[in-house]
């Protein structure tokens, strides 16, 4: 299948490069791994030169809306604390690191003092070494105990890939220490014959929160000797623990602390985070413990050139004749192709599994036209692969066999992939923290690097590439999580009671919501109170009551119909939108069509095919207000926050032509509705406000619907959420408010804190929404401002100018001094419908990478 859709003579993906050598390099400290030597001076082009070549094709220069130059920064050295064992210092020096950066030494000092600490510094700043050195020193002390295991440490990573990579690093660094440090990965891929050895002899066990929740804590008697000696718990990439997933992990960590206390241990928590707002506050909320903050980054940094890239408009027309931009997928595939032809090592980050596969396929085909050997040096990396597939890709990336990778956020995290020249980000990743985390993957040995953000055709991306100050002049977001969410807390109380009877003195550990929940769990016959403790009453495992990733239900197995071969899995929450009958499913560069989806048996049967289109599911939503917690007058209108019930149903899917995104047709589906009780923010307007905004009944529905679409698109700029984490409904006359109403709700049971964050930042959020619509160059609305790709009403009705006037009038009544917003800047969030409503429900849960 040919993917070159451009007219003859204007193929802009394969422009030849003449590489200009670096002539002025910044001296960097020798802080690299011995097996990955830094590049020789002059061997790499300057990032500005690479960008110049990328923009050299016809019409490409106009696609760059802004270029930000971040200058290099010199590092500040310190010395390790005297209490660090000399053998550990010698091992670090043998790895090529003569002196620590100042923040590494500070973090190690706190760890040795018994203070839980969070290191919140930039990508490639040596956070791993900051916690590894005190941990290794303590493990070495423990090896002198009579049983040879007087100290242990537990490492938690959000992904299997990161844990495997960290295990490699620990083994390399600790090799001079002999058998005193026995590091091992314990996750779902660990062979059963190795698991008993790890429990009995491992001193540094690397796992993930899922395995801790389902495997280690429920089997704590088998881990008793390990837990009794537990000195440190390392929580890596802790900024990723947000929303529902973060709330679940917070409760898992409380269960761990409770069991450690039972065995006489009180481990110190060492957390590593990307640069974040108030990291100590977020870390304390995650662990339930006081945490010291180390956020002064003393590491050196090479020059970073960061370009914002807007794909051009095409001659195609979308829904309602709207103009259509070239897709971010197509642009990113071009850039990945270009970089690979130049011999640049790069990663292209994309938000979906399907996108990663598609970018990889397009780049491979285009590279084959130039040099067949290059096609094999690009691959996709995403969640859902089988363990052996993941490991093979990781080895190829480490060895340099792969030059380019199209990846989901599985590789956003701290994998040690040194020596990358460039990062392409296909679509804003949802938060500034993730943006900088992804951009930081390049230049990890201190050399200069290039990052390119390619805008998708949606309101937020379009806003950002034309308002660079929103990215480069604003601090990163606060982490939002709510461990007290009853939908999160209840199953963990059951799991805790199954591990050890839950006593009254345990309740403060789990938070004030326990007192209200425990009687409900008794009434549901999940727990039974005997004397002073609650006991688990069922035969089944309590840990199976919840999926801590918030995905819910058994993963759907994707099976090839003709052979019965298991291709991978899809999260249960995403099955309705991604593997419905007729959906296009991509796996390792091969394309499949879903023949059937059996929800009862959790199996999707697929067959290999070569469709010329992709598929996008559409859904409809109804909403009812259960309880209003807070409301504020906005002139005659009201801004409200509270509990709602949402009924969502996937009703059809669109077929879109590859690369161009042109809509080829819509197919109806017959899938069951799903009900969700969650939290929402909503606003109402009165008839007088409608009159003032010149909104008559004919355009009211379109104006509300357009404002709803754009506000959903803009919320990730103000709350640490992804667009698919939230949904919306707009109603010209809602039966519960008796007024025109727009709702935006959390797409997770019980809420995830995003709607509350929206409530507290409503003035800034809706002001940015209005500006995004008003500044769009289209006439009547397009995907860059008010159209949504997942709209269950087919983006009808929509009225762009009406939405601008409506939001202008609403904001006229917003409180001048929003005390609610000021008081909430640093706090953490908590988290049957109307006919004629326009709606946009959250898509299936983001798939694990």
Q: Can I get a quick summary?
A:
It contains 27 helices and 31 strands.
Write a structural description.
The chain contains 27 helices and 31 strands. 33% of the residues lie in helices and 22% in strands. Helix 2 (86-94) crosses helix 4, helix 11 (328-341) crosses helix 12 and helix 16 (459-466) packs across helix 25. The two termini are 27 Å apart. It holds the Pfam family MZB. InterPro entries: DEAD/DEAH_box_helicase_dom (IPR011545), Helicase_ATP-bd (IPR014001), Helicase_C-like (IPR001650), Helicase_put_actinobac (IPR022307), HRQ1_WHD (IPR055227), MZB (IPR018973), P-loop_NTPase (IPR027417). Residues 814-828 have a biased composition (Basic and acidic residues).
